[in-house]
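Memo to structure team: turn this sequence into C-alpha cells by end of day. - J.P.
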Amino acid sequence: MAEVILRDVWKIFPGEVVAAREINLAVADREFMVLVGPSGCGKSTTLRMVAGLEEITRGTVSIGGRIVNDVLPKDRDIAMVFQNYALYPHMTVFDNMAFGLKLRKYPKQEIRERVEEAAAILGITDLLGRKPRALSGGQRQRVAVGRAIVRRPAVFLFDEPLSNLDAKLRVAMRAEISRLHHKIQATMIYVTHDQVEAMTMGDRITVMKDGLIQQVDAPLALYERPANRFVAGFIGSPAMNFLSGRLEPEAGGLAFVGPAARLPLAPVHAERLRPQAGRAIVLGIRPEDIYGPDHVPALAAGRTLQAEVDVVEPMGNELFLYLQAAEGQLVARVDPRQGARVGDRLPITLDMGKAHYFDPQSDAVLA
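Reply from structure team:
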C-alpha cells in the first residue's frame, strides 16, 4: 500500500511566516492527486514536507502506514520530479537515469534492465547515449521522469514539472504523464498552479489558498459544486463571473436585483435562499452559461440583461465576449457564429438554473 496521509500538518518559517496550516489530506493508494492554487499558497511546501525536503513544524506525514516525520528523504520510498529537471550535464541520459540505482549498489544487469524498461515506456530509448545539452525541453523532462521510474518508488512527487515547457509541449506532456500513471499504477502527487493541468490530470484535486486547503474533490465536482467563491473563481477558464446585488422577494420566489437588472431565481435556488431575502449576495455564473441573443438553448432557465461588447476573442470553435453591464464585467463563451462586434449593445441571457450564490462576507457558497 502507498497511501499518503497528512494529519494536522503545519509549516512555520522563521519570523512566524505560516506557509501551511491544518493540512489534513489522505491520498489513496494508486491515486493521482493534484495540489493546485496560486503562487505562495503552500502547495510546493506541502509536497516538500511529504518528500522530507522541508521539516514539519507540527503534525504527521505517513507513507504506506509508516510515519516518516524523522525519516530521511532517501529512505521514504519516494521519487521526485523537479521543475528544472535537475539532470547532471556531464552524464549521458543512461547514466542520469541509472545514478540513483548505482548509489544503492544495484547489480549492473538490473540497472540496465530498469533503465531500458523506463526508456521504452517514455519513448526515449534512442536518447540514452546523449547528454542533456543535446536534448529538447520535453526530452529532458522525460529523462527526469525516467530517473524517477527506475527507482520503482511507492510514491511519485511532481513539483510543477511542465512549467518550463512551451504551451504545445505542455499539452503533450500532460497526456504522457497521465498515460504513465495508468500504465504503472503508482500513487502520484502533482503540484501545479495551472488549473487546466489540474482538471485534465487529477483523479482528485486539492485546492489551496494562503496555506489552507479550500476543497478536495473530483475535477467535475469542483467545477459544478465549488465550496466557496475562491474555488469557484479559480477552477475554470475563463473564470466564473461574479455580480454583486441583493435578494428581494418576487411573486412566488426571489429575484437577484442589481443596478439595472432584476433576475428571478430558479425555483430550486429560491427555496434554498429564502432565509437570505433582503440581504446582499454575490451571483456567480460561468461563461458558458451566458448566451448572446442569437443562440439561447430552449432549455435554459434564462433571464436577460443589457451589456456592451468590450472585446471579442475568436477561438475557432468558440467565441469569448468580454462584456460591460451595469452589474459588472462579464465574460461569455458563445457560439462562434455569434455576430457581435466591439461596441455592440445587446441583450445577453443568463441561465439562472446554473447560477451559484455566495455570501459576500465569508465567500461561502449558499446555493
